[in-house]
Amino acid sequence: MAIFLQLLFTGLGIGAIYALVALGFVLLIRAASVVNFAQGQFAMVGAYMLVICFNVLGLPYLLSMAISIVLMAVFGVIFAGATYWPLRHRGGLPVIISTIGASIFLENIVLFLYGPSPEVLPGLFDSPGIQVGQVFMDSQYLSILVAAALLVILQYFIFEKTLLGKKLQATSQDKEMASLLGIPVAAMILFTFSYSAMLGGIAGMLVAPVLFVSVGMGGLIALKAFAANIIGGYGSIPGAILGGLALGVAETMGAAYISVPYKDAFAFAMLLMFLMVRPQGLFGEKISEKA
Amino acid sequence: MSLLEIENLTARYSSGAGDVLKGINVSVEEGEIVALLGANGAGKSTTLRSISGLVPHVGGAIKLGGVSLLGQSVEAIARLGVAHVPEGRRVFPGLTVAENILLGASNRKGVSRAEMNREVDEKFDLFPDLVRLRDALGWTLSGGQLQMVAVARGLMAKPRVLLLDEPSLGLAPLIVQQVFRIVAEIRRRGTTVLLVEQNANVALSVADRGYVLETGKVLVSGKPAELWKDPQVRAAYLGGHAIA
Amino acid sequence: MSVNLASARLWRGFPQAILACFAVVAVAFMLPSDGYYLNILMQAVTYAIAVSGLVVVLGYCGQISIAQAAFFGLGAYGVAIGMVDYHLGFFPAWLCGIGAAGLLGLLLGLGSLRLGGHYLAMVTISFQQILTLFLTNWLEFTHGPDGIRDIPRPRLGPISFEGGHAFLALCLVTLVIVTLAVWRLKTGRLGRAMQAVRDNELAAGTCGINVFATKVIAFGLSAVLGGIGGGLFAGGFQYISPDQFSFGESIVLLTMALLGGVQSPFGSLVGTMLLIILPEWLRFLKQVYLAVYGASVILIMVFLPDGLWGLMLERVRKRAKPILGDVAKLPLLTQTGQESAEFVLVIDGLAKHFGGLKALDGISLAVRKGSVHALIGPNGSGKSTFINVITGLYKPTAGKVTFAGRDITHAPPHERNRAGLARTFQNIRVFRGMTVLENIMVGAERPGNDIAENPALVVERALAALDFVGLRGDAHRDVGALSYGHQRYVEIARALAATPQTLLLDEPAAGLNLTEKHELGELLRRLKGHGLTILIIDHDMKLVEQVADHITVLNFGKRIADGSPRDVLNHPDVIAAYLGEPQEEAGAAS
């Protein structure tokens, strides 16, 4: 039982990372109808920014995180300008391909600049963790869970309680009508890219101490975040969060009880199953063919 | 100088297609309700969409208070005081009635949140049927309710001219009457309205003047009483068959 | 590439291909024995074969696949494991690899092609990742990350492909055959079906194409081509490992396809050659070459969407010549003249609800065989919904649709087309990536049409339809280059070429200028009296008056009038529906 709870805790921690990346992903889908295959690379870039600030420049940890987050916001805008903006009238497929190109570009540019050996980042806290009953709660995992919860609350607050959030929702529900009301649609979309990049970057910074910082870390996380999105319900915000958590737990349990090397395959197997059996996921609406 | 001047307006949707509008001349004075009538495909909605900036290929002149609207972005035109209530209402389905109406003020700068909330409350005075739906989400509303929300949202912009596109579309006759009573009231309070309607009868019952469009041109224009008697109006809708 | 009646020749391209085979074999043996050149070419050739698979699935059919390296890998591992562990010959092992790739491709396609583009992309990426995991971790079967070495080269009877030159020759000949096949595919019936699906899936269905099956076949073919290339790769380099078939390699293959031009196997060949040979010359970029790949994908999407080959093709197309010669007249059913009493299309209590909105609220009507039946009504009355339900694009909430005695209420669009129902669309759905003639050929070769199986007759029928609408001179032009009105005629010709029993025209006059409307009226009058049943939706009353034998009026999803034009257009309910109820005058407006 103790093992089960321990695994559950770890699974939720990893799941929270997937949820954060999935959240950034689904926001872009809703706001700009963009399927961003480079979402995982946002996490990777964020982690490397933290490495540069903390390991290389020697800045204090929290300051490094803050600077990195701001840089990610800027990065999001640049990313939108390069991959989305020139193709925004050309429909889904060119944009998808463009983001795929961007993901490969980012991975390899960082590889070129930084080399293939993984970096090590310390966690937020010095203490290794706290013991709660039979479960040992690793401090970094705790930070992940707390940070994720705070971000979800922040997001809820922004989207539901502020005027900006309403405008963002309006833009994602009916772009043309939003522009007729005078809402600056382009700015809304750029903001969404920026925010999405920040979310991804934060996820990367939080998971880095646990996983090592390496060029390839983004790709796998992104794919699992996509899977989380579909399992939770494509286009659904609560679906992204719950899908991510569910995936993290399933994967951790699977690794422990079934097999370690094929751990990563669980996400994809789950994804394939859902796609073939219940493509609308847990919370999504029935996907009907539009006429 | 009229508030809204449209001169020799031509428009088409893509460079390969033919012109939908072939030289429209319309003017709207401040405080008027002007109706654009005609059969479907005549170009009425395209005229409104040209004004609000949604049509890509436009020629001629569109001036609001002397300022040209041609070539400006949709958001810029909204900020200049054009509120377009489009065909089909297009109320945001995932936002509440109050939120929808609130967003109508997005074209105005420097308005405090308190001021905006006050204006939203004023709209509920104008549309008492919406009071109990204040927190209802857009997708749950009926056609008539959607129309009222859309109009209230348009009014929030404090527009110099309100473009109303086919407000009676898909609505039962009783609801249509209700909507048009509100249109009359809006005008009474001083808002200028350019109204597009297929339902000539109800449009002419509130308008000060009307234009009848046919295949992209103005066929005839004048006061409601004149238009009513003109056999060309009936012909424009129903083809060559006059009264049997 | 001018298409004429000779284009239907079965052996087109074969002489050139055979010549090319001899040429490449000669070239292969003339190359220096230095392994370097041989290796470069071998990689380029095997990759080009795999990339041609992307031409089929992405270029022709418009479906995204990011698992081509996985299928490449399946082919390679088929050869490797088959030869090294099971001591099979090269060719049987190759077939196993190809078979595995094809089978998995089909399964993957069957499971995911009903959904949109990005779903397929995710599925293919997932599949790619799972395969890499298996290749790396299933040590007993795949030898794990160390890979498989010492893969022998094949023997075919007395011919040994042991030497580099000989094996390269084998690769090159395979490439020639594959290129010929992929090129011929494009101008064949299946290729046109794929392109129709890519350009306008909805319209493709209404032209009789089984969209789902077409996509699955395209996907399966691309997997098979990947497997073919992979098998040769294994034999060529004689050592393979899992990292050669990873997600990154799928991206490389995708870039090669896009750069050269994903619409053409020649284009993708150019792209592959460039992207393999260039890095060799730009050695210093080796470290970042993938980064350059990534960036170039974006740049190509933005600036060169048709690739290099597309640029060249533009110049060729501009010099398209008209086709001369007489063809048999367009058959429009054998009966002439009078409407028969038989009803060809019977609708009973049809309802379509979108949530709370009742777009169609219990409509019943019957269309007489051979008549021109018009459906009119104010905006929002349900006319377009009606036609979409009848042609199978929407599922009805209730009611029954009977066509030529058959209940087609729940039949998918392509089956309705096969039963004899053809339609045009209000917002014109032509296949923009094809020429005018090719568009109409899609209509002519619909399954069940009398001449569908005979390519030469298909071309003839298409030309006849073109003659009927008066556009023979535009046969080779890109359909997108035509004026809006003429594109409408192409759509009508496409429907007529299918020799339908009933033609549904959804607002055919929309967007036409006065001259074009005249011509349209003429066209409809010419169609009348041939026994073809026509159901037309339009707002243009003059047009409707002139051609309709019978009019049904809809309002608020209900039928409010039905009868001869004279009766209907004077009916008070109809007048009220269009002009509104009479109101009290001026009371509110002063």
Quick take:
The complex is a heterotrimer of chains A (291), B (244) and C (590). Chain A is mainly α. Chain A has helices at 2-32, 39-56, 61-84, 92-114, 139-161, 163-173, 175-180, 185-211, 217-232, 237-257, 263-277, and strands at residues 129-132, 135-138.
Give the secondary structure arrangement, pairings included.
The complex is a heterotrimer of chains A (291), B (244) and C (590).
Chain A (H helix, E strand, L loop, with lengths): L1 H31 L6 H18 L4 H24 L7 H23 L14 E4 L2 E4 H23 L1 H11 L1 H6 L4 H27 L5 H16 L4 H21 L5 H15 L14
Chain B lengths: L3 E9 L8 E8 L4 E5 L6 H9 L4 E8 L2 E2 L5 H6 L2 E4 L11 H7 L9 H14 L16 H14 L4 E5 L7 H16 L3 E5 L3 H7 L2 E6 L2 E6 L1 H6 L1 H8 L6
Helix pairs in contact in B: 3-5
Chain C lengths: L13 H17 L4 H26 L7 H17 L5 H23 L4 H21 L1 H4 L12 E2 L2 E2 L3 H23 L2 H11 L1 H6 L4 H27 L9 H14 L4 H17 L7 H15 L3 H12 L24 E12 L2 E12 L3 E5 L6 H8 L7 E6 L2 E2 L5 H7 L1 E4 L11 H9 L10 H15 L14 H14 L4 E5 L7 H14 L5 E5 L3 H7 L2 E6 L2 E6 L1 H6 L1 H8 L11
Helix pairs in contact in C: 1-7, 2-7, 2-8, 2-10, 2-11, 2-12, 3-4, 3-10, 4-10, 7-10, 8-10, 8-17, 11-12, 11-13, 11-14, 12-14, 17-18, 17-19, 18-19
Describe, in plain words, how this protein is organized in 3D.
The complex is a heterotrimer of chains A (291), B (244) and C (590). Chain A contains eleven helices and two strands, in the order ααααββααααααα. By secondary structure, chain A is mostly helical. In chain A, strands 1-2 form a two-stranded antiparallel sheet. In chain A, a hairpin with a 2-residue loop joins strand 1 and strand 2. Chain A starts with a helix and ends in a 14-residue tail after the last helix. By secondary structure, chain B is α/β, with parallel strands linked by helices. Helix content of chain B is 36%, strand content 24%. Chain B contains nine helices and ten strands. In chain B, helix 6 links the parallel strand 7 and strand 8. Chain C has a six-stranded mixed beta sheet, with helices on both faces. In chain C, strands 4-3-6-7 form a four-stranded antiparallel beta sheet, with helices on one face. A two-stranded antiparallel sheet of chain C has the order 1-2. The relative contact order of chain C is 0.11. The N and C termini of chain C lie far apart (70 Å). In chain C, 54% of the residues lie in helices and 11% in strands. Chain C is built from 23 helices and twelve strands. The chains are: A mainly alpha (291), B alpha/beta (244), C alpha/beta (590). Chains in contact: A-B, A-C, B-C. Chains A and C meet through helix 4, helix 9 and helix 11 of A and helix 5, helix 11 and helix 13 of C.
